[in-house]
Amino acid sequence: MEYESEFDISPGPLVRPFAIAKGRTRPGRYDLDMITLVVALAPADRPGLMPEYAEILEAAQRPQSVAEVAAAVNLPMAVVKVLLSDLIERGDMIFRSPPARTTQRPDPKLLQAVLDGIRNL
Amino acid sequence: MAFATSDPQVGSPALEQSAVKILIAGGFGVGKTTMVGSVSEIAPLRTEELLTDAGVAVDDLTGVATKTTTTVALDFGKITISPQIVLYLFGTPGQERFWFMWDELAAGALGAVVLADTRRLDSSFAAIDFFEHRQVPFIVGVNCFDDAPRYPVEAVRDALDLDPDVPAVLCDARDRESSKAVLATLLEHLIDLGTAARA
Lengths: 121, 199
Description:
The complex is a heterodimer.
Chain A: H1 2-9, H2 15-20, E1 37-40, H3 51-59, E2 64-65, H4 66-73, H5 77-89, E3 93-96, H6 108-119
Antiparallel strand pairs in A: 1-2, 1-3
Chain B: E1 18-25, H1 32-39, E2 45-58, E3 65-80, E4 85-91, H2 96-99, H3 103-106, E5 111-116, H4 125-134, E6 138-143, H5 153-160, E7 168-171, H6 176-198
Parallel strand pairs in B: 1-4, 1-5, 5-6, 6-7
Antiparallel strand pairs in B: 2-3, 3-4
């Protein structure tokens, strides 16, 4: 039967990440975006730390986006956001959201800075 | 520290940088990841998102809404603009019907580059429609593949039925300077739009 073979081949890529995040798919009380920057405040080699948390702390010893952390630990971003929220809540990480917009359009000074940065590459 | 804040809702002021993003969109094989890679300071990374399409189908017997979860991969790169700003470039996933339901991808983007291939212009229609509907400002980059016929940019504009104020430029996604020029054109367009809106 086709169903059986499908399960045989791929039992886990979706199940395991959700198991790590204890079934949670909402990032909790932090509004983490794919480009929210995070940085570890704690070392990754603390005894007793769940391996996924340790890997995230290791990946974010310097500021990284949520997307970069997810790529580094090879987990979907939805799962990584849950784990990051846990680490932020415990004070092991801090985060910085993308610049807030007061209007529908981005700040002209921000746009000019990005343009200058691209030209100077 | 132009963008620093101590608002606890947005995180810590101790982290001096904040991030912005630009999307590189277009049909399959049009050169999105190539362009990301030609300007990124890191080799393009790949990450996955789980998209949940909730409540589309309702089971007749139980009345329980079914959810389908799809894994969508995207490639991205990074450019450090200044000590305060880092720019991420996200190549939209090839599976268009999925990234169109990915709200977070478009939300907050400064703007987008829609890459077009003159051999398959129709593969870029969907991305153009998407950004028009979401009111994400965009420009069109016509990626000049070696073996593709060359057309004047005006002909491509007409074929794509672009609004007169949407810039379109020829480019080579493999070339760093060319890709930089495309991004600069987008930023100039975004600045012009802001100026026009305030006038």
